[in-house]
Backbone:
C-alpha cells in the first residue's frame, strides 16, 4: 500500500478520497455488533454469510465513495531530443550528435519506446513528433540559427504529447544560450518530473579572432576629422588585414599603397586600432571594420569563425540638407527638380532601382519625393524602412500622383500608406467601377512554400481597395476544387485574410476545373477590370483553348506565376495561358526571386486598380483648410486634367486641395517625428500642364517641400550613445546659438531597431544642458535614434532635430569561443539527469532509472457500486429466503437423470395429493389429523392438484398456512384475513396516534 | 398516444429526414463510408517505415513497394509494415517518381524487376530488388530522354509489363506520360537489357471519339493478358480506358465523355470517377480504382462499366483517405495508398489480383481461396 498526496494506493487501485474507507471500516464494525442480535434467528451458516455480506456491502459502498481508480503504469520511454542547431555549434559536432542518437536508437531493445526531435536556434522547431517508428534524426528547416534559445526547446519537449510513456529529454548543446533562461526551463522540467540528460558538445576555439566592436562618434560635423576605433580580440598572436568601409566602399588606409586595407599584427587579448577619418557628406554614414585573416592552404590562419570578423557603426554628419527625388524618367520629374534647384534646395535624383534600401541610407536625406512611383518598384523591406524613416527618423515624404501612383500604383495596404495623409481606398460614397480579382493557388513545392504562398496572396489582397471584389480558389485534398473564399466585396479584408491563412495548397492535377470555376465567378461579377492570378509549379494539366477563349471574350486576363517549375514545359504551359488571355507570366526559380513574390502580386493586383484614376474635363481644385505654410500666398491653383482618387484620412490630416466630389487632391500631416504630403495629380504635362506654366508653380512646390523636410538641427546639440551590457544610453549635450547651455528642452524621441521594430524613447534632463535616455536590450546591429526638440528661447522657441545611432556588433551567437559546460552540469543536476558521453554503447539512453513512469487512471466506482448491489441482494436472500436443500438436490437429480426424476416426480405428486386429502378431511372434522391412519384410509381423487413449489419463500415452518385453508376459496379463511387486516390497520392507527402525541 | 401526437411525430420525422439527407449531401461525399480497415501501415516521417507523402505503391508476391516524396523506395512486409529493404533514388532534385511497376512473374526473387517511371527525369529506371536489407541500389538499365518526339518523354506516370510466352521474360513495356505529351508508348527489349521505342498512341485532349484517342494524364496502367487488354486510368478526363494490347480503344468508362461543360460539377455525379489515379485488376475482370479527387476506392466492372462497390471518404480518421494515389492487392488484402495521410490502409480485397503469369497464377489461386 502506498500513499500519494491525498490518495491511497492498494495494489492496482488508487483511492482519491481514502477517508471514506476508514468511515466504512468503523460502520462495518458497528454493523457487525448490531447484526449479532438481529440475525440471531438464522442458522449458523446463514448467520455468518449474512454477516459477511453485510460487512462487504458496507465496504463496497464506502470504497465507491472513496473514488476508486484502476492504475495502469506505463512501461515505455519517450526520448525527446533537444538539439542545438545554432551557428555557434560546429557543423561536424551536429552531425556527430545525429549519429549518436541514431545508434542509441538501434540499441534500444524495446520497440514500443519513442523518439522525437526538436531543433533549437532562435526558436524551437519540432522536427519529429515522438513515435515508435522514428529511427533517424531529422533536421529540415531549423529556422534562424543566429541565436540560441535552449529554454524554448526544453519547454516544447515538455509540451509535446506523449501518451503512456515516461519522458526523458536529451539536450545536445554547447550550452551557449543567447536568449531566455535554460535554468528556468530546467526548473519546469524538474517540476514535471522529467530528467534532462545532457550531451555536451565540447569545443574551444584555440585560434579565433573577432572584431569586438567599432567605435564611431554618434554625430559629427561635415569635414570634421573623427576617430574610428576598431577593437579586435584574438586568442593568439596572428596577423591579417583590417579594412574599413564607408557606406560599403573601402576606405584607403594604406596611404596610397596598392591595397586598401592595412596590415595589422594581433597579440593575444584585446587589440585596439584607431583610424582617423574625415566626416564625409551630410547624413547618416555607415562604417564597417572587417578583419581578413591571412589564408594558408585555403584555411584562415589564426581564425576559425569568420562570421564574427565584422563590426559596424553609424555616424550622423550634420550639414546642408538634401532632397531625394525618385523618378522612373527624367522627363517626369524635370520640372519639379528645376524649380526646387532654383529655390536653393539641393536635390539628388535617382531611379527606383537605385533608391536607398536601409533606414540608414534613407536617413541621409531630409525629404524623399516619389514621383509617380508604383509600389512594386520597392521591396516590402524598403517600404517598411521608408515608413520608419518618416515615423522614427523624422524624415519628410512627398508622394505625387500619376497613373502608377497612390491607389492606382498598388500602395493600398502598403506600409507607406500608413505614413500618408490620405486613405488610398476611394471614399465609400464614390461610385467607381470595381475591380475583381481571383487568386488560384496550387502546391508550392519549396522550403517555406506555404508561407510564401500565403504572404503573396496577402500582399495582393492588401493592394486592393475595400470596394473591390476578390475570391480565392484552391485544390483542397479533402474537398477537391472549390472556392476557399467566394468572389465578393473585400470590405475590411478580415474574412479573406482568414481564408488565406487556412489555404492548404493542394497538389491539383488539372488547371481546367479551377480556371473554369474562376471564369464562372468572374463572368457574373459586376466589375470593370477582371483578373485572375495563378500561382503554381506548372505541372497540372493545361485548360482547353476553348476555355481560354471564353476568357478573352469576357475580357478577363490571367497572369501566371511559375514557382520553381519542374521543366520548360511547365513554364511554357503557364506562359501560354497568360499570353492567350493578355496577362503576364513570371518565373520564380531562385530563393532570391522568391522574396519578390509579394511584389509580383502587388503589381498584378494593380491591374484591377485602374478605375481609381479620374481623367476628364480640366478643372481647378479648390483650396481647402485655413492658413497653411504650404499654401502661403496661394489664392487659386490652375486646372488639372486628372488625378488619382483618394479619401480623407481621419485624425490630424489636413486636406489642402479638393477635386471632384470633394476628393482630396492635396493633403499633409505629421506622422511620428516626420511629415508627409500627397499631391494626387502629377508634376508633368500629363495632368498638370497648366501648373508648369503657372507663375506660382515654384513657390507652391518650394513651400511644400520645405514644410516636409526634416528641420535641420543645431550643430550645438550633440548626441552620443553608449552600449553598457544589455542596455544602451543616449546622452544629449545641448547648447544654444550663443553657446549657453540649453535647458528645459522637450525631446520627442523614437528608436528604429534593426529587427524592424521601433519604440518611443524618453529623454530627460539630468543636468544643465545635459539630457539622457535609456534603451533596454537593443538588438544586434545599428539602431537609429531620432530626436525632435523644442526649447524656450529669447526670440521664440528653439526647434530642431538630431539623429544618432546605437551600434551593437554581430549576434552574441558568434561571440562565444568555447562551450558553457557549467550551465549543462547545472541543468543536469537540477533535473536529476545524466551526463552522456559520446559513445552510445556506454550510455543506456533508454534506461528506466530515475524516470517517473506515467500512470493511467480509470475510474471504477461504477463497478464497485454494481458489486455492492449484488452483495445487497445476497444479504437479503440469505436472510429472507430459505433454501430446501433436499428439493434442490431432487431438482438437480431430475436435471441430471430425467427418467428417474420422472418417477420420483410421480411419487411426489401422489404423496402431495394424499397430504391434501388428509388435510381436507382434518379440516372437516376440525380435529387433529392422524397421519398414520389417514394414510391407510385415503385414496387419491382423480384430478388432485400437483405438489406445491419446492421453495416456500419467506415463511418459517410455523408460519405455513394450515392445510385446507386455500386463500380466497374458504369463507372462514376470508373472514380471518379481513379480521387480520382490520387489526393491522388498527395497530397502525394506534402507532400513528402515539407518534403524533 | 393520441392521434395528435402521432401526427406530430410523423411530421417531425418527415421534416427532419430530408433535412438530414440534405446535410449529408452538402458533405460532398454523399453515401460515403469509411474503409473497413484491417490494419494501417506507416506514419509521417523519414525513418524506415515512415512516409513523406507517398505517391507510388505496388506489390509482389511477398511485399509492398512504396515510393514517397523523399524519393525513397521502401519494400515493406504487408503484414507488419516492417521495412525489408529500401534505397533512395540517385537523383531527385528535379522531382520524384509518381509511378511504380513491380514485375514479379514467377514469385522468385531472381526474376523480379522494378520499373520506376522517373517522372521528372524523363526516363524509366529498371531495378533488380537485390538482397533484403539492402540500402543501396543502382538501376540495372535506364532509357528515355526529355522531349516530345518518339522515344522521348515529358512526365512519365507508369509502366505496364506484357510478359513473354515463357512467363518470365518481358515481351513489351507500355509507358504512359503527361505534361502536354499525354500518350502511351510501346517499347520492346533490345536484347541488351534495355528497350527500344516501337510506337505510341494517344495525344492530349478529352475526346470520346473512338477513332481519336486522347488522354489527359494517363496515370496508371495494368495489363490483362488473358483478355488481351490494356486498362488505363485517364485521370484528368475522369475515366477509365480499356484498350487492346495494340492500343485500339475498346471502351471508355463511363461510355460518353466524362467531361461535361463544367468539370467542377463532376464530384457530385455518382456514376463518374473523380481523378482516378490508382488501378489494380482483379481476377474476375473487374478493377479497383483509387480516386484521388474523391478520396475513395471504387470497384468497377470493366465489361459493363457498372460500379460494383465503393468505399472510403475524405478525412484523417480511421478508414478515411486524403488523395489516395494508388491501390493494390496482395493475397486477400487490398492496400490503399493514403498519400495525404502518409499511410497505407489495408482492407479486405473483394477478389484476388489478376496475375498474368501461369506460375504465379497457380500460387495465387491457392491463396485466394475463401475470398468473398
Residues:
Amino acid at each position: 500500500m502506498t500513499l500519494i498526496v491525498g490518495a491511497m494506493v492498494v495494489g492496482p487501485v488508487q483511492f482519491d478520497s481514502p477517508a471514506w474507507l476508514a468511515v466504512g471500516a468503523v460502520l462495518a464494525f458497528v454493523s457487525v455488533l448490531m447484526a449479532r442480535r438481529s440475525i440471531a434467528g438464522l442458522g449458523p451458516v446463514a448467520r455468518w454469510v449474512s454477516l459477511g455480506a453485510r460487512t462487504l456491502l458496507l465496504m463496497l459502498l464506502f470504497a465507491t465513495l472513496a473514488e476508486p481508480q484502476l492504475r495502469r503504469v506505463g512501461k515505455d520511454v519517450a526520448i525527446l531530443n533537444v538539439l542545438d542547431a545554432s551557428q555557434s555549434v560546429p557543423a561536424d559536432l551536429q552531425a556527430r550528435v545525429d549519429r549518436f542518437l541514431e545508434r542509441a536508437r538501434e540499441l534500444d531493445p524495446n520497440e514500443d519506446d519513442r523518439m522525437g526531435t526538436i531543433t533549437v536556434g532562435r526558436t524551437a522547431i519540432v522536427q519529429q513528433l515522438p513515435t515508435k517508428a522514428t529511427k533517424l534524426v531529422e533536421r529540415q528547416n531549423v529556422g534562424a540559427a543566429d541565436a540560441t534559445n535552449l529554454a524554448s526547446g526544453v519547454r516544447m519537449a515538455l509540451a509535446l504529447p506523449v501518451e503512456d510513456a515516461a519522458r526523458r529529454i536529451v539536450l545536445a548543446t554547447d550550452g551557449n544560450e543567447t536568449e531566455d533562461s535554460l535554468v528556468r526551463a530546467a526548473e519546469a522540467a524538474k517540476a514535471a518530473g522529467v530528467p534532462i540528460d545532457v550531451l555536451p558538445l565540447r569545443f574551444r576555439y584555440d585560434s579565433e579572432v573577432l572584431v569586438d566592436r567599432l567605435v564611431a562618434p554618434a554625430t559629427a560635423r561635415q569635414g570634421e576629422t573623427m576617430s574610428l576605433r576598431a577593437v579586435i580580440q584574438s586568442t593568439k598572436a596572428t596577423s591579417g588585414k583590417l579594412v574599413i568601409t564607408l557606406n560599403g566602399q573601402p576606405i584607403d588606409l594604406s596611404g596610397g599603397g596598392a591595397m586598401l586595407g592595412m596590415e595589422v599584427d594581433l597579440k593575444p587579448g584585446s587589440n585596439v586600432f584607431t583610424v582617423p577619418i574625415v566626416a564625409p557628406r551630410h547624413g547618416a554614414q555607415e562604417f564597417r571594420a572587417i578583419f581578413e585573416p591571412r589564408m594558408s592552404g585555403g584555411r584562415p590562419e589564426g581564425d576559425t569563425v569568420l562570421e564574427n570578423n565584422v563590426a559596424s557603426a553609424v555616424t550622423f554628419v550634420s550639414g546642408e540638407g538634401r532632397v531625394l527625388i525618385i523618378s522612373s524618367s527624367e522627363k517626369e520629374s524635370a520640372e519639379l527638380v528645376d524649380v526646387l534647384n532654383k529655390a536653393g534646395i539641393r536635390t539628388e535624383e535617382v531611379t527606383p532601382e537605385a533608391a536607398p534600401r536601409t533606414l540608414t541610407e534613407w536617413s541621409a536625406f531630409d525629404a524623399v519625393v516619389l514621383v509617380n512611383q508604383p509600389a512594386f518598384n520597392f521591396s516590402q523591406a524598403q517600404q517598411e524602412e521608408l515608413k520608419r524613416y518618416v515615423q522614427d527618423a523624422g524624415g519628410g515624404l512627398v508622394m505625387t500622383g500619376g497613373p502608377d501612383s497612390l491607389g492606382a500604383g498598388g500602395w493600398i495596404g502598403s506600409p507607406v500608406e500608413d505614413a500618408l495623409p490620405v486613405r488610398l481606398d476611394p471614399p465609400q460614397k464614390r461610385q467607381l467601377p470595381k475591380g475583381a480579382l481571383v487568386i488560384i493557388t496550387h502546391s508550392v513545392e519549396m522550403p517555406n512554400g506555404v508561407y510564401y504562398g500565403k504572404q503573396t496572396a496577402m500582399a495582393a489582397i492588401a493592394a486592393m481597395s475595400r470596394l473591390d471584389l476578390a475570391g480565392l480558389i484552391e485544390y483542397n485534398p479533402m474537398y477537391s476544387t472549390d472556392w476557399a473564399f467566394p468572389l465578393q466585396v473585400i470590405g475590411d479584408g478580415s474574412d479573406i485574410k482568414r481564408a488565406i491563412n487556412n489555404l492548404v495548397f493542394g497538389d491539383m492535377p488539372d488547371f481546367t476545373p479551377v480556371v473554369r470555376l474562376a471564369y464562372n465567378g468572374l463572368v457574373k461579377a459586376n466589375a470593370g477590370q477582371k483578373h485572375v492570378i495563378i500561382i503554381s509549379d506548372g505541372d497540372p494539366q493545361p485548360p482547353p483553348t476553348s476555355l481560354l477563349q471564353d476568357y478573352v471574350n469576357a475580357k478577363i486576363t490571367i497572369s501566371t506565376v511559375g514557382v520553381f517549375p519542374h521543366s520548360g514545359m511547365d513554364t511554357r504551359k503557364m506562359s501560354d495561358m497568360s499570353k492567350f488571355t493578355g496577362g503576364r507570366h513570371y518565373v520564380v526559380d531562385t530563393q532570391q526571386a522568391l522574396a519578390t513574390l509579394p511584389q509580383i502580386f502587388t503589381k498584378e493586383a494593380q491591374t484591377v486598380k485602374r478605375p481609381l484614376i479620374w481623367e476628364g474635363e480640366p478643372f481647378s481644385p479648390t483650396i481647402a483648410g485655413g492658413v497653411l505654410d504650404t499654401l502661403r500666398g496661394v489664392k487659386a491653383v490652375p486646372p488639372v486634367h486628372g488625378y488619382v482618387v483618394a479619401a480623407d484620412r481621419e485624425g490630424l490630416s489636413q486636406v489642402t486641395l479638393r477635386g471632384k466630389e470633394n476628393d482630396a487632391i492635396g493633403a499633409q500631416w505629421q506622422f511620428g517625428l516626420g511629415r508627409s504630403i500627397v499631391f494626387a495629380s502629377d508634376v508633368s504635362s500629363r495632368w498638370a500642364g497648366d501648373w508648369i506654366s503657372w507663375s506660382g508653380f515654384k513657390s507652391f512646390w518650394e513651400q511644400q517641400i520645405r514644410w516636409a523636410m526634416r528641420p535641420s538641427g543645431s550643430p550645438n546639440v550633440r548626441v552620443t550613445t553608449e552600449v553598457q551590457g544589455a542596455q544602451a544610453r543616449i546622452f544629449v549635450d545641448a547648447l544654444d546659438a550663443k553657446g549657453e547651455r540649453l535647458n528645459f528642452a522637450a525631446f520627442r524621441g523614437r528608436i528604429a531597431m534593426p529587427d524592424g521594430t521601433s519604440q518611443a524613447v524618453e529623454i530627460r534632463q539630468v543636468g544643465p544642458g545635459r539630457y539622457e535616455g535609456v534603451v533596454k536590450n537593443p538588438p544586434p546591429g545599428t539602431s537609429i535614434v531620432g530626436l525632435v526638440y523644442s526649447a524656450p528661447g529669447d526670440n521664440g522657441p528653439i526647434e530642431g532635430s538630431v539623429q544618432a545611432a546605437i551600434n551593437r556588433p554581430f549576434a552574441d551567437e558568434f561571440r562565444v569561443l568555447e562551450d558553457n559546460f557549467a550551465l549543462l552540469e547545472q541543468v543536469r543536476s537540477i533535473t536529476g539527469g545524466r551526463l552522456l558521453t559520446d559513445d552510445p554503447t556506454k550510455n543506456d539512453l533508454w534506461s528506466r532509472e530515475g524516470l517517473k513512469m506515467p500512470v493511467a487512471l480509470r475510474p471504477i466506482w461504477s463497478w464497485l457500486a454494481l458489486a455492492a448491489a449484488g452483495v445487497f441482494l445476497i444479504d437479503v436472500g440469505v436472510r429472507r429466503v430459505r433454501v430446501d436443500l433436499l428439493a434442490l438436490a431432487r431438482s438437480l437429480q431430475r436435471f441430471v437423470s430425467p427418467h428417474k426424476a420422472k418417477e420420483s416426480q410421480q411419487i411426489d405428486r401422489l404423496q402431495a395429493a394424499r397430504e391434501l386429502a388428509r388435510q381436507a378431511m382434518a379440516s372437516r372434522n376440525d380435529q387433529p389429523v392422524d397421519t398414520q391412519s389417514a394414510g391407510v384410509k385415503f385414496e387419491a381423487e382423480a384430478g388432485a392438484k400437483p405438489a406445491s413449489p419446492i421453495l416456500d419463500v419467506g415463511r418459517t415452518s410455523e408460519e405455513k398456512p394450515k392445510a385446507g385453508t386455500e386463500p380466497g376459496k374458504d369463507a372462514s379463511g376470508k373472514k380471518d384475513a379481513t379480521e387480520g387486516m382490520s387489526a393491522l390497520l388498527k395497530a397502525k392507527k394506534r402507532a400513528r396516534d402515539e407518534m403524533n402525541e | 398516444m393520441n392521434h395528435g401526437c402521432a401526427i406530430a411525430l410523423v411530421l417531425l420525422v418527415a421534416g427532419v429526414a430530408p433535412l438530414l439527407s440534405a446535410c449529408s449531401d452538402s458533405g460532398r461525399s454523399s453515401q460515403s463510408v469509411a474503409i473497413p480497415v484491417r490494419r494501417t501501415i506507416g506514419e509521417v516521417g523519414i525513418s524506415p517505415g515512415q512516409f513523406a507523402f507517398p505517391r507510388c505503391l505496388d506489390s509482389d508476391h511477398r511485399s509492398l513497394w512504396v515510393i514517397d516524396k523523399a524519393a525513397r523506395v521502401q519494400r515493406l512486409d504487408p503484414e507488419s509494415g516492417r521495412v525489408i529493404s529500401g534505397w533512395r533514388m540517385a537523383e531527385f532534385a528535379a522531382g520524384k517518381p509518381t509511378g511504380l511497376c513491380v514485375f514479379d512473374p514467377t514469385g522468385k526473387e531472381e526474376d523480379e524487376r522494378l520499373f520506376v517511371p522517373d517522372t521528372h527525369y524523363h526516363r524509366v529506371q529498371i531495378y533488380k530488388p537485390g538482397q533484403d536489407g539492402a540500402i543501396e541500389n543502382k538501376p540495372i538499365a535506364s532509357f528515355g530522354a526529355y522531349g516530345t518526339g518518339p522515344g522521348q518523354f515529358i512526365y512519365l506516370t507508369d509502366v505496364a509489363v506484357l510478359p513473354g510466352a515463357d512467363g518470365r521474360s518481358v515481351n513489351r513495356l507500355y509507358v504512359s506520360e503527361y505534361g502536354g505529351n499525354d500518350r502511351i508508348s510501346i517499347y520492346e527489349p533490345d536484347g541488351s537489357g534495355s528497350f527500344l521505342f516501337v510506337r505510341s498512341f494517344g495525344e492530349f485532349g478529352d475526346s470520346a471519339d473512338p477513332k481519336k484517342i486522347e488522354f489527359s494524364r494517363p496515370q496508371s496502367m495494368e495489363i490483362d493478358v488473358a483478355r488481351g487488354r490494356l486498362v488505363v486510368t485517364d485521370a484528368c478526363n475522369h475515366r477509365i480506358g480499356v484498350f487492346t494490347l495494340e492500343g485500339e480503344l475498346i471502351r471508355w468508362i463511363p461510355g460518353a465523355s466524362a467531361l461535361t461543360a463544367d468539370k467542377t460539377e463532376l464530384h457530385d455525379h455518382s456514376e463518374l470517377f473523380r481523378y482516378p489515379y490508382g488501378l489494380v485488376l482483379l481476377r474476375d475482370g473487374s478493377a479497383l480504382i483509387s480516386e484521388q479527387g474523391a478520396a475513395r476506392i471504387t470497384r468497377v466492372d470493366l465489361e459493363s462499366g457498372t460500379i460494383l462497390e465503393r468505399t472510403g471518404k475524405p478525412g484523417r480518421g480511421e478508414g478515411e483517405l486524403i488523395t489516395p494515389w494508388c491501390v493494390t492487392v496482395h493475397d486477400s488484402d487490398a492496400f490503399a495508398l493514403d498519400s495525404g495521410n502518409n499511410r497505407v490502409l489495408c482492407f479486405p480485397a473483394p477478389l484476388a489480383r489478376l496475375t498474368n503469369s501461369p506460375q504465379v497464377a497457380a500460387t495465387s489461386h491457392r491463396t485466394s481461396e475463401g475470398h468473398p
